[in-house]
Write a structure and sequence with these properties.
It is a single chain. It contains 17 helices and ten strands. By secondary structure, the protein is an alpha/beta fold. The protein is about 45% helix and about 10% strand.
């Protein structure tokens, strides 16, 4: 066992009278006397129950719903570990819940559902939804994840957001814009090769096209090789098929400006990196083990701009850089959904925060996950986009909202 493996198990184990795992529930009101009990529980609790029965919107006034997100998985694509099952995915989901709380003061329940049939999964999640102010779908594999998210978004009036798709796309978008800036590339000329054609990869590519990359400049590989027009592909993959005889990553990576890895460990070779254009942009984002380790990428191309999804290298491109703030904004303005305008606002806010920082450079293309400015810097811009695009049910005065976030930031431990 490596030191990291040993430490990771120690970290998650019970210690100092604290239970195993890394998150617990906190009581927020006094429950110390008979009088308190009469309010918190029977008979007093019946009063808010009946208020909500008369008007369901009152759940936001008298329960935790408005600050509570469900982090929901079925364990079919846990990080790059694959289909390890719902229960084995629990440490990741607890981890997402920790980040919601730590970075944005949002309470999150992790829910691991032992169901792989997408229709049944939708029914289970829809039946659970009254509990939550928003739903963060996590680590559900493609193509089922597309159907699950689409169905839930149609059915529910709370935000439903598949983090691996859209959270990843936002942070990749921000890192990509800044990597282009640093290397002086024109977005309309950037040639991109993507390893992976799953949830994260295809959403990232949609975002890159939204930002201005011509679709024809993008070549995609899945586990069977290049997506070509001669292959029998799913609807989602067909949109990225190229008319080419090439079939492997090694054949298409020549002179690519950007490698985007959202596939699995060790799928990029040093030879592949050597074939790329000068000053290549290499985002090897598979977790926990990237497509190629940064030190190996640099051996092959010392001037490369390199990013991974991990916390132990510079340039951590990870959806955790955005999902706490997207949900914070969505909950605060009671948004019915998280839409493209909110996602774009987040891309720009993250990119600008890094680009205007004194550290901006090849080893700092996006802010650190621990950057305390994120809550107050990024969230109001997402909230404003929600209001402007018409999905907010509550509008804040900007000064008042910033003050509220600053006060919240002081309470975060
Ligand atoms: N850094 C970050 O923030 C994030 C990173 N990720 C990482 O991205 C990866 C994919 O996650 P996700 O999209 O959710 O999972 P999915 O299961 O939806 O997609 C996995 C994709 O990887 C492809 N793949 C598997 N083996 C190969 C191979 N040998 N060559 C090329 N492609 C291959 C699969 O191909 P096929 O379609 O043929 O099965 C599939 O398209 C994971 O490693 C995950 O950790 C994900 C989200 C966020
Ligand atoms: C970061 C993340 O969500 C993943 O690797 O699946
Ligand atoms: Mg994930």
């Amino acid at each position: 066992m490596t030191t990291l493996e040993h430490n990771a198990l120690q970290y998650h184990a019970a210690r100092d009278a604290r239970p195993a795992g890394k998150i617990a529930i906190q009581v927020t009101k006094p429950v110390d006397s008979q009088d308190d009990l009469s309010l918190a529980y029977s008979p007093g609790v019946a009063v808010p129950c009946m208020e909500i029965n008369r008007d369901p919107a009152k759940a936001y006034d008298y329960t935790a719903k408005g600050n509570l997100v469900g982090v929901i998985t079925n364990g079919t694509a846990v990080l790059g570990l694959g289909d390890i099952g719902a229960l084995a995915g629990k440490p990741v989901m607890e981890g997402k819940a920790v980040l919601f709380k730590k970075f944005a003061g949002i309470d999150a329940f992790d829910i691991e559902i032992d169901e792989t049939d997408p229709k049944k999964l939708v029914e289970v999640i829809a039946a659970l939804h009254p509990t939550f102010g928003g739903i963060n779908l996590e680590d559900i594999k493609a193509p089922e994840c597309f159907q699950v998210e689409r169905s839930l978004r149609e059915r529910l009036s709370i935000p439903v957001f598949h983090d691996d798709q859209h959270g990843t796309a936002i942070v990749v978008g921000a890192g990509f814009l800044n990597a282009l800036r640093l290397t002086g590339r024109d977005i309309s000329l950037a040639k991109i090769v993507c390893s992976g054609a799953g949830a994260a990869a295809l959403a990232c590519l949609d975002m890159l096209v939204d930002l201005g990359v011509p679709r024809k400049n993008i070549t995609v590989c899945d586990s069977r090789g290049v997506l070509t027009t001669s292959r029998d592909l799913s609807e989602e993959k067909r949109a990225w098929a190229q008319d080419t005889q090439a079939s492997t990553l090694g054949e298409v990576i020549g002179m690519a400006d950007v490698f985007l890895g959202l596939s699995g460990p060790g799928l990029l070779s040093q030879d592949d990196v050597r074939k790329m254009a000068a000053r290549p942009i290499v985002f090897a984002l598979a977790n926990p083990e990237p497509e190629l380790r940064p030190e190996r990428i640099r051996e092959a191309a010392p001037d490369a701009i390199v990013a991974t999804g991990r916390s132990d290298y510079p340039n951590q491109i990870n959806n955790a850089l955005c999902f706490p703030y997207l949900f914070r904004a969505a909950l605060d303005v009671a948004a019915t959904t998280i839409n493209q305008a909110m996602k774009r606002a987040c891309v720009v806010a993250l990119a600008e925060m890094a680009a205007t920082d004194a550290q901006f450079g090849t080893e700092y293309i996006v802010p650190s996950l621990l950057d305390k400015r994120l809550l107050t810097g990024v969230t109001p811009l997402i909230a404003a986009a929600a209001v402007e695009s018409g999905v907010a049910r509550q509008v804040w005065d900007q000064q008042v909202y910033r003050g509220r976030l600053e006060a919240l930031a002081k309470t975060l431990i």
